Amino acid sequence: MNKLRFSSKMHLFIIISVAVVAVGLIMGLVFHFTSGSFFNWGGDYASYRTVEVQYSVHEITAEEVMEASDAAFEENGVSYFTYVTSGASTESRVEFRFTASNDPEALTRAAAAINEEVGMASDNTGFATAYNNLTAHFNSNRDIMYAGIAVAAAVVFQFLYFLIRYKFTMAVAAFIADVHNLAIFYALLAITRTMVSSSVIALSAITVVITMICCAVMFDRMRKNFRTDEYKAMPSFEQSDLSAQAAFPAVSVICGGLFVAILLALAVTAIAGGTAFGLFMPCLCALIAVVSCWYGVAFFTPSVYSRLKQRSDKYAASKSVKYVGAKKAVKNAE
Amino acid sequence: MGKIKSAIITAIIALATLALFLFGVISCALPGGVNRYNSILASINLGAELSGDAYSVLLPEGVISAEEYDFTVAEEGEEADDMKQSYTQAPGGSFYVENTLLNSFASDGTADTADERALAFEELSQKIAADADIVAARLSGRNLTSYSVGVLGGYALRVAVPTNFSYAAYSGNDTGARSEYITTAGTTISHLSLGGELTLRNNEYGVRDRVSAAQNAAGTTETRNILGATLRVEDIFQSVTYYAMGGTYAVRINLTEQGAEEISRVSAYIADTSTTSDQTIRFYVGETSVIDLTCESQITGRTFYIQCSTEDLARDYAALLNSAATGNSLEYVYEYNDIVYQTTPGGENTAMFLAIAALAVLAVIIVAAVVRYRGLGATFALMSLLFAGAMIAIVYLVGVTLTTMGVFMAAMCYMLFAGCNFWSFEQIRRESDAGRTIQAAVKTGYKKTFTGILDMHIVLLVVSVLLTLICGGELAACGMIMLIGTLASYLLHWFTRFSWYVTMSLARDKYKFCGFSREAFDEDE
What we know:
A: alpha+beta; Multidrug efflux transporter AcrB transmembrane fold; Alpha-Beta Plaits; elongated; B: alpha+beta
């Protein structure tokens, strides 16, 4: 078993967590006031500008359209964050998406340049339109709200379940772990400017789920330890440390297993190259979620729980002191 | 267990599992090369980020695209001259707006000055943005895994919904289904962008109104508004919801107290064949008939159902009618030319590589299990294939739409299954190392891990139920996958124990079979 001592390091872990959350908050606020967005919202949520190019596949190839478009965008100093293709057997379309910070005038100039190029190359069958007004997307506003309610309900359920199944202090510690891990997860998203899409909202629920599993493993270990008299006689800090040390490998294996699985998915994404880059951001967010959970449950929670346990033990001791001697006899008689 | 009995049971389990897994993941051409077998995995509906979406640009009446304007003007002639006189270019240059529409915003009825036109464009743009909000709310109520509604250039709506292609359709191996999916997506867009107010209509009973006049002008049957001008739809309807039971799909209409009285009175009249020959209450949104209710008797309760032919239609109608019945009607009637399928922004092979990543995780865990637990690892590998096959089959049967996070959730459930089994195996190894017989070690090991594993599964089960019931769209789908995965994990955890018992009976050295060792004690000690 490892010799990690978590109980005495609570202040260190609190400082680390507060620092991460504070940096995340500051970075989020800075971006909120400079570019109008706390998180780096993905295409699902953020408004964007578009330039749409329509062309006849009989007159010009998709590669030529892309080449002409890329050259026009570069010339006008704008760059798109993604593009989608569509179309039937004869007419095809490419929609280039730009963040709101791109200059609308530059986009119009680029669209005119593409028009000229594509028009010439395709015997005037091509047509490029720049939709410069913001395309305001309303995707899932209500879904985010319901996801928040579901995650909150899950956290409350976990608290109640742990309260019934384990002890009050454990339930409180698990509750703190949930809140802490979510805060760290969102702070890291704000710091790393990882693109937040609807998948990330689902990852909030997964963060809570991983936290619940790891907390269940740790407190199950503690509950089993409490069956021995030797363990019961230990000071609360030692009790916490011993259980946390025993649960550390299991928690690390759970988080490590997920981490390796996500790395595997990232490796596959890398092999796929540009044809599956949509997997990259969700995988990156999932890695952040797993790291948040591992740090939160393996390090932060045992240290916080040890203090809760210490206070709880003191309270229990002070309560038992109230009834000694004659008072105890009266209480027993009652 | 006897070796013959054990061999027979092992063979049956192995064959059934392999058959399920192979039918689950392998697609192939059938002899003759005409037909093709598409696996269960290839038949599951995929979300927009895996298979792309279908979108349409909706133009309000009186607005045309710059492309259409330029095309007509370039043709020259009377129509071109008419268009030049009738339309004004909107700010941004992407659209042209009919002058009569702009005039409707001017206080004097003519937007002839630059200021008046600017103000008219501003107001038009605001109304279209408000309509976009309503369409977005309708799509949210439709329970799609994703959707987007954008205001394009300020004067058109761009509505996108997932095509929900299966991988077979997406990859071109099921072209018939592909066009069906696009038609369904188009129908959803067309239903949920219907403009105008909700009215209940009958051919004979009721009052004539603007809609019936328009119907006459179009040369179709005249219909009458049965609710009259004094009642608002919000006073009649409480909500409209989707309802499904045993393969029957319907919309459930919930009425207010006042609505129940009114519908009871109206339905009594319409159901009476001696007073009217038309026994139908028609639900119109604007000038479009959406759904009909045939009244064979008086409606007395506060709830009634109207059956629909398909699940998609029932969901469309429920979302549309609920929005219109609660007073959220679109200001304009929108028109669109075509439904365009567009590829996923995440790359065309995202779905395939996501499946490869999931299978790689499965393979890595199976190899690790075989290396560490030998024969027991092989039994676990069989159970892993059963888990994967069962997950694929149930997700397909339940009709859950698979998204990236759904696959991630399924992989997490598999890791839960693997983790719980490995935890039990390690506990049993410890018991075995301590000198217990293999039977005693298995019994004690499973007993020691029982509560922990049960706790984890209960917590996950409740969380998955919460996600499924409270959330909508992608999260609800994730919740459903988590629910299926958690149940499968717990049931197969115990089935693994049974399979272990069966397969171990074939082995001569049971410790070697499991990759365990047992501390040897001298008899003198």
